[in-house]
Every structure is written in C-alpha cells, then in structure tokens.
Amino acid sequence: MHRLIQFLARFTAVIGGLVLTGLILMTTVSIIGRTINKVLHTDFFQSQLTGLSQTLLDLGLGEINGNYELLEAGVAFAIFSFLPICQFYGSHASVDVFTSFLSQRANRWIAAFWEVILTAVILLIIWRLFEGMQRYIGNGETTLFLQFPVWWAYAASFAAGIISCIVAVYCAVIRVIEAVTGGNILPSEQGAH
Predict the structure, then answer these.
(1) Taking the CB of residue 81, how many other CB atoms lie within 10 A of it?
(2) pTM for this structure?
C-alpha cells in the first residue's frame, strides 16, 4: 500500500510538472508573440515595411488566443497535482519555532493532529470542487475565447484532487500510527536544515 500511495503522489506531481512546464512555454511564446505584434503595428513598420508587416500579421503572429483561460485551468490542475507529493513527504510549509524545544513524541502528536486537520480540509475542498463541477456541467458555461466547457478544468482538478484525498487519508492514518508507536513510516521534511 505504501508503494502505491508513493507512486500516486509522484505520478501526479510529474503530470502537474509537465502541465506547468507547458504553461510556462505557452505564456512565454504568447508574450513574445504579443510583443512582436505590437512592434509590427508601430508607425515605422506600418509606413516603411508595410508588406513585411502585413505578411507577418496575416500569419497570425501575436498573442496565443485563450492563453489566460488555459493558464487559469492549468495552474489549478497543477496545484491539485502537487498536493499529494507535499502530503506524502510532509513538505508543506511549517513553522516550528515554538515546537522545536518539545520532545520527539510531542512533535509526532502535533504532526498527526495537523495531518488529520489538513486531510479534513482537503476533503472539504475536493467536495466543494465536485459541487462546483456539477454546477458548471448543469449550466453549460463555456470560456470566453476558446469556448471549451468550464467544467473540463474542474474535472481535471477533481481527478488530481481525488488522488490528493487518497494520499491525505493514508498519511493521516500513518501519522497517527507513528504518534502511537513512536516509529517512522513516512518521510518527514519538517524543519530547516
């Protein structure tokens, strides 16, 4: 079970990373295209190099249509894709100024408590995400430029969110077991080194 959960966490992180890399490339190309488009519309290009300017503009040189819509949907998916790996490795941001002087046993119980709370929050978020997806399926709303159904972005995030829920529940159970037994089952990246 441990290896399966670790695989799921890593797999979703890789997929999220690939999506994020694609979004970065798309945004870069869009910014370059928009900049070139603005340059081609300057007085110099419009008066001196009209033929070249018009040819390049006719090729569609410019901002990628709908890039904001894709960016919005992709970043939401990437965030949900990175949740499981952070959960599995205990890599969420934490401040241990007040707990660093406590015993290891006390810190295990604190970690277990917050793991259970975080799991409940993730479950709540995914439940509400599902409700939002159902609402958008029902009303048929589409994005402005690309006209793809809004619920598609919700569905992609929900798929990654389901894996987040599975990993979160597993991690909460294991952290409680660690607190009870005093053992280490899950890796923990807590604290500065």
Answers:
(1) 27
(2) 0.86
**What gap in Å lies between CA 16 and CA 11, rounded to an integer?**
9
| pLDDT tens column, 41-98 | 888 888 888 888 888 888 888 899 999 999 999 999 999 999 999 999 988 777 777 7
pLDDT in tens, 132-150: 999 999 999 999 999 999 9
Residue (of 84, 86, 85) closest to 126 by Cα position: 84
At residue 165, what is the residue type? C
CA 190 – CA 89 distance, rounded (Å): 9
Backbone angles phi, psi at 137, to 5 degrees: -65, -45
Closest CA to 156 of 23, 1, 2, 3: 23
Asked if the model's pLDDT at residue 193 lies above 50, the reply is no
**Using only C-alpha atoms, what is the Rg of the chain?**
23
Residues with Cβ within 8 Å of residue 85, at least 6 apart in sequence: 9, 10, 12, 13, 91
